Amino acid sequence: MNWKEENNSLYKSFSFKDFAEAFAFMKRVAVLAEEAQHHPTWKNTYNKVEIWLQTHDEGNIVTEKDKALAQAIDALL
């Protein structure tokens, strides 16, 4: 599934084998987000991770910063 732009954010859902894999992915995303100083809204339920990206200091819209982080997240897989 590709990132979907909806409600002024980029959204994508990721599924993993189990909670440990999902959490390991979240830790890798956290490092990317911290390096970019751009932090996602996200949710984890067992093996599923959902991520929403939007630039808060630009009025909660999708910007190039969001697109760049989305690409970096996809590169982790």
Automatic annotation (TrEMBL):
GO terms for biological process, alphabetical: tetrahydrobiopterin biosynthetic process
Q: Does the keyword Lyase apply?
A: yes
Q: Under which EC number(s) is this enzyme classified?
A: 4.2.1.96
Q: Which InterPro entries match?
A: PCD_sf, Pterin_deHydtase
- Tell me which Gene3D superfamilies the record gives: Transcriptional coactivator/pterin dehydratase
Q: Which SUPFAM superfamilies match?
A: PCD-like
Concerning Pfam families, the annotation shows:
Pterin_4a (PF01329)
Q: Spell out the reaction equation it catalyses.
A: (4aS,6R)-4a-hydroxy-L-erythro-5,6,7,8-tetrahydrobiopterin = (6R)-L-erythro-6,7-dihydrobiopterin + H2O
Family note: Belongs to the pterin-4-alpha-carbinolamine dehydratase family.
What protein is this chain from? 4a-hydroxytetrahydrobiopterin dehydratase
Q: Which organism is it from?
A: Pedobacter aquae
